[in-house]
Structure formats: C-alpha cells, structure tokens
C-alpha cells in the first residue's frame, strides 16, 4: 500500500542535490535511514533537497530529512518542490532540532572494580535493611504496647478481618500440606528404619519432627507466601494511591491503623495455625503408619504419648508467634516502602517474600541453637 | 477544511449490563477538525471514546474510521486500523516502569522497523514537539508533574504519526496557565500536522480555545453538534446552563 522511500544523491558543481521519491513515513523509513545516515556530503558547499516527487511525508520523515541536512554541517540547505504541508513539517522539524551539546553516550562501567563496587553496595544494603527492619520492629512493638494499654483505640474490625483472611482462610491449605508432609516423613523414615528393624521408631520420628520443626516452619512458610505478600500488596496499593498520606493528614497513624491490627492478628493466628499443622502432620504420619507399616493408631498414639516428650510441642509452639510477627512486620514494612510506580510495588512484594522466608529460616536456626544449649 | 468524514458513528448502542449508556447515537467527525465532546458527568463521553477505539465493544451500531468499519475487527486487521489513531488517556497512562523516552519508543519498536539510535532521536524529537525538554526523556513518569505527564502522554500518542488523535480530558487537573499552554500545543500540532482531534473535556476554556465544532452528549445520544456560537442558541436547558453560566461566558469573552 505504500511505496518504498528512495533517494538519489548527485553533485552539481558546488552543490549537492538530494532527490527523494516514494513515501517517507514512520513505517517505511527503516529501509533508508541507515544508508542516509552514512551518506557522505563532503566536497559540497550547499545541499538542495528535491521533494517534487515525494509521496507521503510525516513528522518522522521530515525529521530524517532535516537530520540529513543538519548533520552535513553545511551552512545553506534549501528544499525544492515541497508542498505547503511538507514545508510546514520541515519547518517544525528544524525548530525541534536537538540542542547541540547532548551527544555523549554514557558508558556503564564493567569489570572487576564494578564487581567490587556492587558487592560493597549489596553488603551495605543488607546491613541497612537489617537495621531498618529492627527499627521498624521496635516502632511496631511500641505501638502495640500503647494499643494494649488503651484497647479502645484498637481497630477491631480490621483486626478480626485480618484474622479471618490470614488465619481462618489459611486453615485448609495449612492442614492439607501438613498432612502430606507428615505422610512423607513417615514414609521415608519407615523405609530407612526398616533396614535396622526399627520401624516402630517412625512414631518418634514423626512426632519430634512435626511437633518441633515441620508444623511451625511449614505454617510460617505458607504464611510468608500467602499473607506476607498480601500485606505488602494491600498496603503498597494504598501507598501508590496516596491513601496512606490521606490517612496521615486526617490524623490517623498508619502504624495504628494498618500495622498494629495485622501484627496482633498474626500474633494470635500463627499459633492456632501451627496447632492445626501439628495435628494434621501427626495425622498424616499416623495414617501412613497404619496403612503401610501396620502400626495401628492406638499403638501410634500410645507410643507418641509415652516416648515423645511434651517439650517438643512447646518448643514448636513457642516459635509460632515469633514467625507470625516476622511475617506481619516484613509484609507491612515493605508495603509502606512502596513508591509511586507499579514496578516498585512488584519489587517490594518480591523483596517482602524473600526477606520473610530468609528471616524465618535464620530465626528457626537460632531457636535450634538456643534450645540445644538449654538442653530441651 | 475538507469535508471528508474521518470518524462516522451510526446507531451506536453501548451498555454495561442493563445500564444503557448510549442508544442510537450518530456522530460525524470531519477530517482535519478538532471535535470537542462535552456533556454532564456520567453521560458516557469516555465510553464513546472507548467504543470508537475498540476498547469497549458496542452492543449495536457501527463505527467507521476513514470509511472502514472498525467495530469488532481482530488480529492483524485491528493492529492496522489502530494505526489510524493515537490516544491520550486521562491520567496519561504512561508505563510507569519505563522512562518517558522508552514510553515513546514503545509503539515505534512495535510497529516501525527503525534502527535503535534513530528511534531514540525520533522519540526525543516527539518529546520536544510536545513541549518538554529533551532531558525529561530520562525521567520516570512518577518524577513528572501532572502537566508534564500529559505532554509525555501526548508525545507517546503521536509516536506513529496517527492522523487522528483522541484526547481524554487533556486539561483536567492542570492549572489554568499550564492548561492554556496545552490547548495551544494541541491547536498548533493540529494545524501543522493536519490532525483530526477527538477531544473529550469538561473545560470550557479548552473548548473555546481549541475546538472547531462541539458535540453535546446527553440522554444517551448526541443532543447537538455545532460551533460554540451555534450551540449558544440551543434551547436545551443543560446546554444553556453550560454556555450561559459564569464560566461559559467568561470563556467566550476570553476568545473574543
């Protein structure tokens, strides 16, 4: 539907003549642009552009024609046979020439020094993030205590709604996954222990593993993926639409309205979810033991009661509120850090989930060392 | 001004569920004119725009652009007719993860086969054309003021040199001086590029400063079309209030 743009260049004495044909618009220009950029205009003192036979011309075409004329650096350049519209387009292009100085290409540094610099920055970022997160933890605890002293200021609706969304609604997935993990532990444990003729120890294995570690860590991981990202996205979207700013100007403290109800809700719901996870995890273990190992539930639970100390349960449960706080804090903090763009929301959500998972595992390791030293 | 019709809307009906926005709506926009669309809030000005550009499928009726039926076209055909127009959305709708220059380059990259440096240069030229400094090209939309964001959005809408420009509330939320600058920009660009402009607005000053003709929407259809002087003689109460109110009179006085 459109003709290819073409040009011919001739030298008539002192003068260069550029004759254009065909359509010069944004869709066709790709075919001549580079050739025209490398056109050698040496040895002439003026350039004449002949537009008599040109087809369509748009701003992109006019820009290219004007660029050719301006790049040549010749003092005088004229056009010939241009229609009224073409003249006005060319005039516009001339008036919009780039300011002369901006032609430096910024090269990005690469190599060893850059690597060192980036490493340094990352380490410092990590340190700053840690300090800021701890500062936020302190701020939240202060707000939570204030709220505890004056419970009338608590946003009960938000609190209950978060408890439902992040707690109650998570029960099915927590129960399901714990059940399967319990099954897997029992199965793998049984096959290994069978070699020693000690299949019955599967009960202790499942009991200790689920009570002490898997129940609570699995819950925390699910919450980090499910609730933590939701917190960041909710608060981040509110930041993006300046709702948080509006809140502040209305005398509502975002800490009180957004962070504290979430923190309290998680503080309460994470132990509850952990209990669910523990029950279903043990259930999964008992199920496999019964079906595959012929340890019937009565024997299973009897042995569980007699040989797995109750301390294991309390060790697991004691970690739950801490993990709940980690999830709530990191989720809220990253949400409040969201800037104006969609991209920053995405970045914050990613960072939020990564930080939450990382913190959960690290804190769990610290707990393990702590309880080991205590001899529990 | 040629009398060729650029956009022809016939018997358009649009509805959201049971809520009918337009019914039996007819409208002609001639080539090379600036057509202003006004009407009370919620009368479906933006919906009409969306229906024409295919963002909202009409329940009935047809929309022709340069004699081609554009309702319900798909695939390659759609991307071809989409090159008839550029759209500037109300809040700019710039891609917030791209710089202004990358925003302008985005349509070029997709539809035109140009070398990278040339695309950059061309984008910079469009940015200057919309009245921004070249240095604004490196900024992100969130770093720009409202007026600059609108100009950047205009630069992106014009990236492919479309013959028709749709502007949705171009001066909403701008201070009067910035708005007047934007009006002048639209007018100048329309003249130099011979554009057809479809302009949805609330702003009486913008209407007075830029539009050749004005269409008034209301009661699910076009109530009246004409120049500002013609519309001022209309009997319809809303139109009378609109142009006869203090703002309407001030805008008219400002032009004369």
TrEMBL record, chain A:
<dbReference type="InterPro" id="IPR003453">
    <property type="entry name" value="ABC_MlaE_roteobac"/>
</dbReference>
<comment type="similarity">
    <text>Belongs to the MlaE permease family.</text>
</comment>
<feature type="transmembrane region" description="Helical">
    <location>
        <begin position="170"/>
        <end position="190"/>
    </location>
</feature>
<keyword id="KW-1133">Transmembrane helix</keyword>
<keyword id="KW-1003">Cell membrane</keyword>
<dbReference type="InterPro" id="IPR030802">
    <property type="entry name" value="Permease_MalE"/>
</dbReference>
<feature type="transmembrane region" description="Helical">
    <location>
        <begin position="196"/>
        <end position="224"/>
    </location>
</feature>
<keyword id="KW-0472">Membrane</keyword>
<dbReference type="Pfam" id="PF02405">
    <property type="entry name" value="MlaE"/>
</dbReference>
<keyword id="KW-0997">Cell inner membrane</keyword>
<comment type="function">
    <text>Could be part of an ABC transporter complex.</text>
</comment>
<keyword id="KW-0812">Transmembrane</keyword>
<feature type="transmembrane region" description="Helical">
    <location>
        <begin position="272"/>
        <end position="293"/>
    </location>
</feature>
<feature type="transmembrane region" description="Helical">
    <location>
        <begin position="313"/>
        <end position="332"/>
    </location>
</feature>
<feature type="transmembrane region" description="Helical">
    <location>
        <begin position="353"/>
        <end position="372"/>
    </location>
</feature>
<protein>
    <submittedName>
        <fullName>ABC transporter permease</fullName>
    </submittedName>
</protein>
UniProtKB/TrEMBL annotation, chain B:
<keyword id="KW-0813">Transport</keyword>
<keyword id="KW-0067">ATP-binding</keyword>
<dbReference type="Pfam" id="PF00005">
    <property type="entry name" value="ABC_tran"/>
</dbReference>
<dbReference type="InterPro" id="IPR017871">
    <property type="entry name" value="ABC_transporter-like_CS"/>
</dbReference>
<dbReference type="GO" id="GO:0005524">
    <property type="term" value="F:ATP binding"/>
</dbReference>
<dbReference type="InterPro" id="IPR003593">
    <property type="entry name" value="AAA+_ATPase"/>
</dbReference>
<keyword id="KW-0547">Nucleotide-binding</keyword>
<dbReference type="InterPro" id="IPR003439">
    <property type="entry name" value="ABC_transporter-like_ATP-bd"/>
</dbReference>
<protein>
    <submittedName>
        <fullName>ABC transporter ATP-binding protein</fullName>
    </submittedName>
</protein>
<dbReference type="InterPro" id="IPR027417">
    <property type="entry name" value="P-loop_NTPase"/>
</dbReference>
<feature type="domain" description="ABC transporter">
    <location>
        <begin position="7"/>
        <end position="244"/>
    </location>
</feature>
């Amino acid at each position: 539907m459109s003709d290819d743009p073409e040009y011919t260049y001739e030298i008539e004495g002192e003068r260069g003549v550029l004759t254009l044909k065909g359509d010069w618009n944004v869709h066709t220009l790709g075919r001549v642009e580079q050739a025209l950029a490398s056109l050698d205009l040496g040895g002439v003192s003026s350039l004449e552009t002949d537009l008599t036979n040109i087809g369509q011309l748009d701003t992109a075409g006019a820009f290219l024609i004007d660029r050719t004329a301006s790049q040549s650096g010749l003092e005088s350049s004229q056009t010939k046979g241009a229609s009224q519209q073409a003249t006005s387009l060319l005039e516009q292009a001339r008036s919009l020439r780039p300011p002369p100085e901006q032609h430096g290409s910024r090269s990005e540094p690469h190599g060893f020094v850059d690597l060192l610099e980036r490493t340094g920055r990352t380490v410092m970022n990590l340190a700053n993030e840690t300090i800021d997160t701890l500062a936020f933890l302190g701020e939240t605890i202060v707000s939570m205590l204030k709220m505890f002293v004056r419970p009338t200021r608590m946003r009960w609706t938000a609190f209950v709604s978060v408890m439902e969304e992040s707690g109650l609604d998570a029960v099915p997935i927590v129960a399901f996954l714990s059940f399967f993990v319990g099954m897997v532990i029992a199965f793998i444990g049984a096959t290994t222990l069978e070699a020693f003729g000690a299949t019955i120890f599967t009960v202790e294995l499942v009991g200790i593993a689920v009570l002490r570690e898997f129940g609570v860590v699995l819950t925390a991981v699910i919450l980090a993926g499910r609730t933590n990202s939701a917190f960041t996205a909710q608060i981040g979207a509110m930041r993006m639409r300046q709702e948080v700013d509006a809140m502040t100007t209305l005398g509502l403290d975002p800490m009180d309205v957004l962070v504290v109800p979430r923190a309290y809700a998680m503080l309460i719901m994470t132990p509850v979810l952990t209990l669910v996870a523990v029950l279903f995890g043990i259930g999964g273990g008992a199920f496999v033991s019964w079906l595959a190992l012929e340890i019937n539930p009565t024997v299973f639970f009897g042995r569980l009661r007699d040989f797995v100390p109750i301390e294991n349960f309390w060790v697991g449960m004691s970690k739950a509120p801490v993990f709940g706080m980690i999830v709530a804090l990191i989720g809220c903090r990253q949400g409040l850090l969201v800037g104006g763009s969609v991209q920053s929301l995405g970045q914050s959500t990613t960072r939020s989930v990564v930080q939450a998972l990382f913190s959960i595992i690290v804190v769990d390791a610290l707990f393990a060392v702590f309880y080991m030293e205590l001899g529990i | 001004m040629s009398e060729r019709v650029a956009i022809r809307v016939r018997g358009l009906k649009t509805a959201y569920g049971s809520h009918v926005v337009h019914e039996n709506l007819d409208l002609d926009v001639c080539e090379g004119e600036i057509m202003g669309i006004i009407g009370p809030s919620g009368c479906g000005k933006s919906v009409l725009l969306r229906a024409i550009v295919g963002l909202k499928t009409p329940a009935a009726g047809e929309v022709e652009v340069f004699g081609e039926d554009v309702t319900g076209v798909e695939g390659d055909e759609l991307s071809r007719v989409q090159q008839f127009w550029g759209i500037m959305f109300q809040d700019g709708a710039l891609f917030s993860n791209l710089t202004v220059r990358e925003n302008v380059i985005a349509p070029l990259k997709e539809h035109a086969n140009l070398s990278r440096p040339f695309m950059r240069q061309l984008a910079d030229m469009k940015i200057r054309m919309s009245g921004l400094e070249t240095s604004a090209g490196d900024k992100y939309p969130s770093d720009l003021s409202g007026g600059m964001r609108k100009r950047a959005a205009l630069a992106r809408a014009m990236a492919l040199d479309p013959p028709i420009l749709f502007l949705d509330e171009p001066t909403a939320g701008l201070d009067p001086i910035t708005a007047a600058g934007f009006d002048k920009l639209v007018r100048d660009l329309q003249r130099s590029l011979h554009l057809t402009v479809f302009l949805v607005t609330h702003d009486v000053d913008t209407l007075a400063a830029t539009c050749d003709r004005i269409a008034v929407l209301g009661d699910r259809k076009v109530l009246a079309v004409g120049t500002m002087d013609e519309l001022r003689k209309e009997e319809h109460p809303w139109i009378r209030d609109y142009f006869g109110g203090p703002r309407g009179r001030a805008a008219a006085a400002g032009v004369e």
